[in-house]
Amino acid sequence: MNKYILPVSVLGTVVGCGVLLKDYMTGGVCPSKDKIQGKTVVITGANTGLGKETARELAKRGGRIIMGCRNMEKCETAAREIRGETLNKHVYARHVDLASIKSIREFANRVNQEEERVDILINNAGVMRCPAWKTEDGFDMQFGVNHLGHFLLTNLLLEKLKSSAPSRVINLSSLAHIVGEMDFNDLNWERKKYDTKKAYCQSKLANVLFSRELAKRLQGTGVTVNALHPGVAATELGRHTGMHQSQFSSTVLGPFFYLLVKTPQQGAQTIVFLAVAKELEEVTGRYFDVLQEKEPAPRALDDEAAQRLWEASASLVGLEQMEPAPPTKGTTDPLPPHHQQQQQQGPMPITAVPQQA
């Protein structure tokens, strides 16, 4: 017997078991094989990471993909790569900076003018634990990009989504929402010492609250809204965390991270599932953890906080209030009374967050 056969066999078995274990630990692949020919998908932050892999998979399934990105050079490169790999020529790069109200409005206007329909909106772009940066309009960067930017974009595309119904809005949140707290007296960290972790968790809690409130307001329109935790994936999102800068983490803990941390392709599976699965066509206002529907944290189920966040967000970005849908007959989870606010002509000063009515 060749002396190399046994060691090679053992190595192959170990590697194979490692791959299978990683697949199990990271949640598996999207179970749906549904196609989306004729449907238009708008994805933010699509030039890298989960957004890029989601765009790639949905392009394979026949979608018309609008990739909204801040860095147009990377976005154009990613779009060309996806077109070449999938042979889907309907993959387009468009500029949008979620840290700029002006840029968001320009992007939304272009989509509304150029696209006949928007069937799927995937609010994927985000920042994680960055320094105490501010957006162009003076908002905390994490709250501004992760929540306010997508809040505004979604509302600006709502009429297109409604006219394309059945359609879907998918918001990327995080398991971090569990420890998030909404400080309605200081959403933009003007009065307290900045904490990068708490700011991130607040923005992720906002994603779930926004999803549930929007789902209620869109009852009967054919537009569904769901939030998800994609799992921990090896993307550029964590570039501001100490883990990415630690030699110890990359060497000693590397093998363990391999089993627990997803590749971008694996991390995109839940997004794809929520975007294409026919069995989810009428599922709305829910939270998914990897590929399973789960109940979010108790704070994310606070309807009063969700409504208050909506009103504060609308005021901050200068958006006209949309009336919540009245409860339908037989509804067991009616909306709380909605308090009208005077329409703002522009963004309110960030210290003037509306208080509870």
UniProtKB/TrEMBL annotation:
The keyword Membrane does not apply. Residues 316-357 are annotated as: Disordered. It comes from the Eukaryota. PROSITE patterns: PROKAR_LIPOPROTEIN. Its EC number is 1.1.1.300. It catalyses: all-trans-retinol + NADP(+) = all-trans-retinal + NADPH + H(+). The keyword Oxidoreductase applies. GO terms for molecular function: all-trans-retinol dehydrogenase (NADP+) activity. Gene3D superfamilies: NAD(P)-binding Rossmann-like Domain (3.40.50.720). Keywords: Lipid metabolism, NADP, Oxidoreductase, Signal. Residues 1-16 form the signal peptide. Pathway: Cofactor metabolism; retinol metabolism. InterPro entries: NAD(P)-bd_dom_sf (IPR036291), SDR_fam (IPR002347). PANTHER family: PHOSPHATIDYLINOSITOL-GLYCAN BIOSYNTHESIS CLASS F PROTEIN-RELATED, RETINOL DEHYDROGENASE 13. Belongs to the short-chain dehydrogenases/reductases (SDR) family. This is NADP-retinol dehydrogenase. It comes from Megalops atlanticus.
